[in-house]
Amino acid sequence: MKRILLLLVICMKFVFAFGQDDGNYEYTREFVWGINKNTNGGLIGGFMVKKSRAINSTTFRTFGAEIMNVKHPKEDRRTSPNSGNSYIFGKSNYLYAIRLQTGFDKILFKKAPQQGVQITYGFSGGPTIGILAPYFVEVVFNNGDGVLRQQYDPENPQHTARNIVGSGRLFQGLGKSTIIPGVNAKASMNFEFGTFKSNVTGFEVGLNAEAYTYLICLIPAEKNHKFFTSAFLTLYYGTRR
């Protein structure tokens, strides 16, 4: 999180030190999609799409959606000495967040059609659909005669580091998911480096906050929360006209 916050500070300094308004590049609609990295996610935190429509020459109304995997900060990934497979010890549930967002982007500095950097800041928020899905582990039983895939349960005496030999299949627990409503809000800055008038390429950095209607239990043995915050970096590409 400190690294992403440092990047945000550097970008802010860049804005005020080098930004300039070219004023000769007009467009009214934009559609972008991207890959997200955040402090609550893994190597890839999730994916986003966003559509924008001009209100005036510098302000855009935005409509977006994000799909994110939200992790507990105390996750402990281990490798089984018996199988060589990895798993997260103590994890009982996944949390997938589907965020619907509306807000606005405000242009600070415009770019020329084929040069320069365009810099915008924005705020958005909306409802969150939280999907709490069981996290399955592979557990040996009958002294190694077989393997069962079960949701991790700290009360089960078989669910120990000695008996767990791996994690379940990807998305295995989605069929037993629980839907948890919530709300989200984010503040961000965008830096667009596209070299063609109709294309958009850049990155977004910012902060996100999210609250759910009740406690989200990801790791039963650790402190769990209803409220999550994160810093994020999103690389995006898209089109405009």
What is the CATH architecture annotation? Beta Barrel
| Biggest sheet layout | 8 strands, antiparallel, barrel
- Mean pLDDT across all amino acids: 87
| Overall CATH class | Mainly Beta
- H and E string: HEEEEEEEEEEEEE
DSSP strand tally: 13
Strand percentage lies at over 45%
Number of helices: 1
What is the number of independent domains?
A: 1
Decide which structural class fits the backbone: mainly beta
User: Which overall shape is indicated by the principal axes computed on the Cα atoms?
Assistant: elongated
N-C termini distance: 35 Å
Question: What is Rg?
Answer: 22 Å
What does this molecule look like?
This protein is mostly beta strands. 7% of the residues lie in helices and 57% in strands. The strands form 3 sheets. The chain has an 8-stranded antiparallel β-barrel with strand order 1-2-3-6-7-11-12-13. A 3-stranded antiparallel sheet has the order 9-8-10, with no helix packed on it. It has a two-stranded antiparallel ribbon with strand order 4-5. It is elongated and about 70 Å long. Mean pLDDT is 87; it is low at 12-24.
